[in-house]
Amino acid sequence: MPVSVRYKPSTAFANLGPEFSDPVTPARFPQHILRRRNQIWAARVGLDTLSAEEWERSFAAFAPLPRNMPSPRAMRYHGHQFRNYNPDIGDGRGFLYAQLHDDAGRLLDLATKGSGQTPYSRTADGRLTLKGGVREVLAAEMLEAQGVYTSKAFSLFETGEALVRGDEPSPTRSSVLTRLSHSHIRFGSFQRHAFFERPDLMRTLLEHVAEHYAPEARDADELAAGVLLHAVREAARLAASWMAAGFVHGVLNTDNLTITGESFDYGPWRFVPMSDPSFTAAYFDETGLYAFARQPEAVSWALAQLGSALTLVCPVPPLEAALAEFLPAYQNGLRTQVLRRLGLAETELEPDLEFLQTMFNWLTESQVSWDQFFHDWFCADAARAAASPEAARYTDAGFAPVRDGIEKRGPVRAERLRHPYFQRAAPASLVIEEVETLWAAIAERDDWSLFEAKLAAIADMRDALSISCHQSVVAGA
Questions:
Q1: Four-CA torsion 88, 89, 93, 94, nearest 10 degrees
Q2: How many other CB atoms sit within 10 Å of the CB of residue 108?
Q3: Element (H, E) at 270
Q4: Cα dihedral angle (354, 359, 364, 367), rounded to 10 degrees?
Q5: Which residues of 130-157 are buried (b: 16+ CB within 10 A; e: fewer)?
Q6: What is the rounded CA–CA span in Å between residue 452 and residue 462?
Q7: Quick one: which H or E segment has residue 240?
Q8: Beta strands in 164-225 (DSSP E)
Q9: Half-sphere exposure of residue 386: CA atoms within 13 angstroms, side-chain side
Q10: Going residue by residue through the chain (477 aa), what tens digit of pLDDT does each one get?
Q11: C-alpha–C-alpha distance, residues 65 and 72, integer Å
């Protein structure tokens, strides 16, 4: 297999031993139809030189990569699911396939979704619908374009099986996804060791995290508190970036939040069409626990559960001190992410927070299109806003303090407005109606043109925004 010289394999997680994961056998599929190959990120991890046949062998049949894990591993973890503790979960339809370092030296995972049954599948089939795979690709691409710290949809194959599901017309087409992520170690990974009262395994996992993801944690008086502080700061920034993007993850259980603060596992996600604090993504979220405006609260609650698990090996006071950092980290992250999306300069923290509150209140009251607003006012371009389909809303008296706040801050890198993307009247967007329309074309006619056109529009937006985001698996080359 002609991997490039940039390919740097690792078996770091597998080396932790059998208490952390289980070897599994990948499913065998009747078909391997390539639907998405992320060549940009393949180059960054040294896999861009794989032939079509080698790509298929690696990411549809899951033959081991050179000098990497000899077999996939289903990771063990527990989790609070809608705030109910579940000790009967783990990787149920996916596994850790390989680990490798990117061109920035970071340890990344290649992990799957829809790759077959594992010891944690229970009665499920371990498969992923093609619609689910398409939605994963779309969510990851849009969030990356907006500078959100997200996993990447690395590969998607249609697999030729007819799946029966209760939440979409059945039988439906099947797929297997491989995503590239900066760790799959979840809050629930630590909860499992606390549940079984295994301080030895907890310390082993903490050492692993400090070595590969949070080296600054070693400077803390207590390693566990240092790791928790790292998770608090990263998760706060992530929650802030979702709010700036108008993104609703849908399922913020403790098994869907990682210690690196990376957004991943896109099931019932949605982008808000207009600001609505109660907007939910999952039809089964009947109480609105993970509604748009409650996401910071949900992440903070999940961090508290992580802190509780870490009391197995750490005194309470340093853990409480780490958790207290969430609010200031979230506020700072929200300021950075919203102003970055608007192409505006940051000022003093308190005035920025007042401006953000005023802006969010107006967005909710006016019901202006979320994406259109950020498109119109990027780099404080009042002339473009005046030509917008939403221009009439910007003449309302209630908008005056928002406009004043935008103009006071001024643009950052205003030359970006010369990009052709900003000559468009409407921005690239991904509300649910658009997703359903492009999926209907695939489901009914096997027409992938709308899907490809949407990805092209998102790529155009990413190029136009040129966001220098958090150093992560989403950062541009």
A1: -140
A2: 25
A3: strand 270-271
A4: 170
A5: bbbbbbbbbbbbbbbbbbbbbbbbbbbb
A6: 15
A7: helix 223-245
A8: 172-181
A9: 3
A10: 778 999 999 999 999 999 999 999 999 999 999 999 999 999 999 999 999 999 999 999 999 999 999 999 999 999 999 999 999 999 999 999 999 999 999 999 999 999 999 999 999 999 999 999 999 999 999 999 999 999 999 999 999 999 999 888 899 999 999 999 999 999 999 999 999 999 999 999 999 999 999 999 999 999 999 999 999 999 999 999 999 999 999 999 999 999 999 999 999 999 999 999 999 999 999 999 999 999 999 999 999 999 999 999 999 999 999 999 999 999 999 999 999 999 999 887 778 999 999 999 999 999 999 999 999 999 999 999 999 999 999 999 999 999 999 999 999 999 999 999 999 999 999 999 999 999 999 999 999 999 999 999 999 999 999 854 443 343 333
A11: 11
255 tagged catalytic: yes
- Geometric angle at alpha carbon 323, from 471 and 314, rounded to 5°: 105
Please report, as a single letter, which amino acid is at residue 166: G
Count the Cβ atoms, other than its own, within 10 Å of residue 296.
21
Return d(Cα 342, Cα 465) in angstroms, integer: 10
CA 165 to each of CA 65, 127, 162, 168, 302: distance values in angstroms, whole numbers, following the listed order: 33, 10, 10, 6, 29
Q: Is 468 helix (H, G, I), strand (E, B) or coil?
A: coil
- Spatial separation of the C-alpha atoms in residues 322 and 133, rounded to whole Å: 36
Show Cβ contacts of residue 319 under 8 Å, excluding neighbours closer than 6 positions: 222, 224, 225, 228, 307, 310, 311
In total, the chain counts a number of residues equal to 477
Q: Hey, which bits of 52-171 come out as E strands?
A: 73-75, 79-81, 84-86, 96-101, 107-113, 128-129, 152-163
My answer on whether omega of the bond before 171 falls inside 30° of 0, hence cis, is yes
Could you say which of 109, 255, 285, 376 is catalytic? 255
Nearest to 149 by CA among 22, 277, 247: 247
Classify residue 401 as exposed, middle or buried by CB count within 10 Å of its CB (0-12, 13-18, 19+). middle
Tokens describing residue 372:
């259109």
For residue 76, count other CB atoms closer than 10 A to its CB.
20
Alpha carbons 330 and 238: distance in angstroms, whole number? 8
Q: Are 9 and 65 in contact (CB under 8 A)?
A: yes
> Residue 364 carries which side chain, given as an amino acid letter?
T
